[in-house]
Amino acid sequence: MSTTALPATAARERRIAWSWLGILPFLLFSLMFLLLPAANLIVGAFQDPSGNFTLQNIVNLGQPSIIRSYTLSLEISAASAFGGVLIGFALALATILGGLPRWVRPTLMTFSGVASQFAGVPLAFAFLATLGRTGLVTALLFGIFDINIYRGGFNLLSFWGLTITYLYFQIPLMVLVVSPALDGLKREWREAAAILGATGTQYWTMIALPILWPSLLGAFLLLFANAFGAIATAYALTGSSFNIVTILLYAQIRGDALHDPNLGYALALGMIVITGVSNGAYIWLASRSARWIR
Q1: φ and ψ of 30, to 5 deg
Q2: Do residues 97 and 150 both lie within one domain?
Q3: What is the mean pLDDT of residues 280-292?
Q4: What distance in Å separates the CA atoms of residue 186 and residue 212, rounded to the nearest whole number?
Q5: Which of 56, 178, 246, 251 is a Cys-bridge partner for 255, taking CB atoms 3.0 to 4.6 Å apart?
Q6: Residue ranges making up the domain that contains 172
Q7: Are 84 and 223 in contact (CB under 8 A)?
Q8: Rounded CA gap, 270 and 136, in Å?
Q9: DSSP letter assigned to residue 53
Q10: Does residue 15 sit in the same domain as residue 118?
Q11: Which residues contact 194 (CB under 8 A, 6 or more apart)?
Q12: What local confidence, expressed as pLDDT, does residue 251 receive?
């Protein structure tokens, strides 16, 4: 080995060592605000108020009220994720492959980047002001078309009302997630299919959708996990009257009537398992779809 190779190798190793400093803030942030709190929740789920080991908190998750809260959260998450995938995919498809003017895409992406993070109290207030009993859209429908959506059975403080509210940030998130996959559809594939006599429907059903399927399923799981962990919007919109698992968890840890922190930790542990499985499956599907996007 030449003598010049050793200094070059040593310099490269020093550069790699210094490069770790760049991600040190991220590692510290993850440790302090993600890993340590999650570890504390997991430990607390197997303790009683005195700090002794117990499985009673896990057993108590089988209570009918807790089962209903998990079921309701799963249903809302699935419904909003499904609607977000359908509408968001159609919106991204029309923007990227639909031949719309060029200015539409950057405008949509900018809006999606902002709207996907718009949640909590501002979003709840916006929907109350729009679709509440005295909201703007509610009043316009009644004043112009004599349609009373609340008399027809609609209620913003209900399953479908909360699902529609969640769609506000689910649809933009879907647009951001699926756009790289649509960009990965090569023009040569469509041209080759057309040369071989395939119709547009055959191209989408036999080529495009099978390629996009991992991305679509992964996006559904990501949107599902995103909705499952949401609390601020639901709590600001419905208060404690809508018994989804995140609101029940808040009541167990911070509430007065249902105060049982260790049971709250067990509820959080169940949520960690569900969201962890969803995100793990999303990462695996994203790695499969990345082979076609490159």
Answers
A1: -65, -40
A2: yes
A3: 80
A4: 12
A5: 251
A6: 63-289
A7: yes
A8: 39
A9: B
A10: no
A11: 203
A12: 83
Mind giving me the DSSP string for 166-212? HHHHHHHHHHHHHHHHHHTS-HHHHHHHHHTT--HHHHIIIIIHHHH
Q: Give domain status of residue 274, yes or no.
A: yes
Tell me the pLDDT band of 279, cut-offs 50, 70 and 90: confident
Please indicate, yes or no, whether residues 6 and 96 belong to a single structural domain of this protein.
no
Model confidence over 249-278: pLDDT tens digits? 888 887 655 678 899 999 999 999 999 999
Question: Are residues 73 and 40 part of one domain?
Answer: no
Q: How many CB atoms lie within 10 A of CB 102?
A: 7
Number of independent structural domains in the chain: 2
| 40 and 70 housed in the same domain | no
**pTM of the predicted model as reported, rounded to 2 decimal places:** 0.87
Q: Helices then strands (H, E): number in the chain? A: 14, 0
Domain assignment of residue 53, yes or no: no
DSSP secondary structure of 54-109: -SHHHHHTTSHHHHHHHHHHHHHHHHHHHHHHHHHHHHHHHHHHS---TTHHHHHH
134 with 32, same domain? no
What SS3 state is found at 50?
coil
pLDDT (0 to 100) of residue 242: 81
Amino acid at 162: L
CATH number at residue 67: 1.10.3720.10
- Residue labelled with tokens 């995140």: 246
Is 187 a domain residue? yes
What span, in angstroms and rounded, lies between the C-alpha atoms of 107 and 104? Answer: 5
Are the beta carbons of 250 and 235 closer than 8 angstroms?
A: yes
* Dihedral, 92, 96, 101, 105 alpha carbons, nearest 10: 60
Closest CA to 85 of 166, 178, 174, 213: 174
Q: Is residue 52 part of a domain?
A: no
Residues 237, 97 within the same domain: yes
Identify whether residues 78 and 148 lie together within a single domain. Answer: yes
